[in-house]
Amino acid sequence: MAERQPIKMLHDRLLCEVDTEGERRSSGGIVIPATAALGTRRLAWARVAAVGPHARAVEAGDRVLFDPEGKAEVEVSGETYLVMRERDVHAVAADRLADESAGLYL
Predict the structure, then answer these.
(1) Which terminus of the chain, N or C, has less C-beta within 10 A?
(2) ∠ CA(87), CA(11), CA(89), 5° rounding?
(3) Are the beta carbons of 58 and 86 closer than 8 angstroms?
(4) How many whole angstroms separate alpha carbon 66 and alpha carbon 19?
(5) What is the per-residue pLDDT across 83-106, written as a single tens digit (0 to 9) for each?
(6) Is residue 6 one of the residues assigned to a domain?
(7) Does 21 map to a domain?
(8) Domains identified in the chain, total number
(9) pLDDT digit string (tens) for 27-47?
(10) CA neighbours within 13 Å on the CB side: how many for 97?
(11) What is the CA radius of gyration of the chain?
(12) Residues 6 or more apart from 67 whose CB is under 8 A from it?
């Protein structure tokens, strides 16, 4: 069996760990099960595990909002991650953004 090898992301690629999707609660308090089908596409949150050297607005540890449809999955040391480009990220949520004028609080 091969030993573990370090991974370096290239260009503007991100290695992300998808947040587990379970039950959600609406603003009115109604519980929506994870199996409920929605009529619209739903964006997802993920935690960034690694970034390539050309990623400018995202750092490891940030939470990012993205469209999960059509993203490449990879298994690393038994964990499943997504690989995406920085341009596929719609929003970034991180404590370090508090000093900047982000506009919204998620």
Answers:
(1) N
(2) 20
(3) yes
(4) 12
(5) 999 999 999 988 777 666 555 555
(6) no
(7) yes
(8) 1
(9) 777 776 656 656 667 788 999
(10) 17
(11) 16
(12) 41, 43, 44, 88, 90
Average pLDDT of the residues in 39-68: 89
Q: Are strands 24-25 and 13-18 parallel, antiparallel or unpaired?
A: unpaired
What's the N-to-C CA distance of the chain in angstroms?
Answer: 43
pTM for the predicted model, two decimal places: 0.71
Domain of 38?
Answer: 13-98
User: What CATH number did the domain enclosing 31 receive?
Assistant: 2.30.33.40
The DSSP code sequence of the chain is: -PPP------TTEEEEEEPPP--EE-TTS-EE-TT---SS---EEEEEEEE-TT--S--TT-EEEE--TTPEEEEETTEEEEEEEGGGEEEEE-GGGGGS--S---
Query: What amino acid is encoded at 86 in this protein?
Result: E
